[in-house]
From TrEMBL:
Any one GO molecular-function label of the UniProt entry: hydrolase activity
Described function: Counteracts the endogenous Pycsar antiviral defense system. Phosphodiesterase that enables metal-dependent hydrolysis of host cyclic nucleotide Pycsar defense signals such as cCMP and cUMP.
Annotated source species: Paenibacillus rhizophilus
The reaction(s) this protein catalyses: 3',5'-cyclic UMP + H2O = UMP + H(+); 3',5'-cyclic CMP + H2O = CMP + H(+)
Lineage: Bacteria, Bacillati, Bacillota, Bacilli, Bacillales
Record's protein name: MBL fold metallo-hydrolase
UniProt keywords, alphabetically: Hydrolase
PANTHER family in alphabetical order: ACYL-COENZYME A THIOESTERASE MBLAC2, METALLO-BETA-LACTAMASE DOMAIN-CONTAINING
Domain Metallo-beta-lactamase residue range list: 35-254
Pfam families on file: Lactamase_B
Length: 330
């Protein structure tokens, strides 16, 4: 395999990792304008990008890398889900590229996403206040790992706010439900959705010949899964269906390129969080007293642990019986 990543001048926002011939992972550098990972796929006669980062500058670097690595402009952009660290750079790739997502993802972006951006533009002060409050917590934090993560979070938020006045919220131009196939001259890729687990609708890209999957935030490597909009049972069901595809290599939404081992770890995390909260509910204990299990203490996105507990608590109490042992009911 000829490694072409050396041909691209490094971006401060990501590191390139050649996963296979013509398949590249753009791994986010913490504390920059990327936040999430992206991918570049050479289809032979065209180029495809998966997800577009949080800021315009990061997306511009991604576009430059794609052109330099493949020798062609980007023709397709996939948004795996609606979160801003996977979609805010969309504007960089039009009008040359078609932007593709699930129907539900586009609907959420066209409503909630656009409304949220309008609020940010009309009144950015709440975000600046939150950043100031986090900065105060950083000064007091004694856990060096958590302190570093909080610093990264504020640095990324700062890049987002600096870019905000120039952001043109750009919606997908093509939508699909179920599965969509793109045939290039040298490879075929499958866009697949099994519904929503991490968000209300999650898609991933599968390269059947190479057995590589670009999973968006359905799989994170050594990061706490983000469960703010999650349905734990649906997420577990999706991951079980991905297992059946025979995937060998995963480009995750966050963290390093990994394998099915990390997918299994995400399944374990979701089951563990649900079990922890279910036990607390059963014992009438406060979820505020729950601490990060030993297995996940070295994972990043530590600040999401508490919000994950709250989301699972709401899910359990709103839908009694919704545990991993009752998945067939959903």
């Amino acid at each position: 395999m000829t490694n072409r990543t050396e041909t691209f001048t490094d971006s401060k926002h990501f590191r390139l990792n050649q996963v296979a011939e013509g398949v590249y992972a753009a791994i986010s550098v913490p504390g920059t304008g990327s936040v999430g990972n992206a991918a570049i796929i050479d289809l032979g006669d065209s180029t495809l990008v998966v997800d577009t980062f949080t800021t315009i500058e990061a997306a511009e670097d991604l576009q430059a890398a794609a052109i330099e690595l493949t020798g062609k402009p980007v023709s397709y952009v996939i948004n795996t889900h609606w979160h801003s660290d996977h979609t805010s750079g969309n504007q960089v790739f039009i009008p040359g590229a078609q932007i593709i997502s699930t129907s539900i993802t586009r609907e959420i972006m066209a409503t909630f996403g656009k409304d949220r951006l309008a609020r940010h533009l009309a009144d950015p002060e709440p975000i600046y206040r939150a950043m100031d409050e986090l900065d105060e917590k950083i000064q007091q934090e004694t856990d060096e790992k958590l302190k570093r993560e909080m610093q990264w979070e504020n640095a990324s938020d700062s890049e987002y706010m600096n870019m905000l006045p120039n952001l043109v919220y750009t919606l997908p131009t093509i939508t699909f439900d179920g599965q969509m196939t793109i045939h290039g001259s040298s490879r075929t890729v499958q866009l697949i959705t099994y519904g929503g687990g991490h968000t209300q609708s999650d898609a991933f890209l599968y390269l059947p010949e190479e057995k590589i999957a670009v999973m968006g935030d359905l799989v994170l490597s050594k990061h706490h899964p983000v469960m703010m909009y999650a349905n734990p049972n649906a997420w577990l069901n999706i991951l079980e269906r991905v297992e059946a595809l025979g995937v060998e290599t995963i480009i995750p939404g966050h963290g390093e390129v990994c394998s099915m081992k990390e997918l299994h770890e995400v399944k374990g995390y979701i089951n563990d969080i649900v079990a922890l909260v279910a036990e607390a509910v059963h014992s009438k204990k406060s979820i505020d007293d729950l601490v990060v299990p030993q297995a996940y203490q070295d994972w990043y996105f530590t600040t999401y642990f508490k919000s994950n507990l709250k989301r699972v608590y709401d899910w359990i109490t709103e839908s009694p019986g919704s545990t991993p042992f009752n998945r067939e009911k959903e």
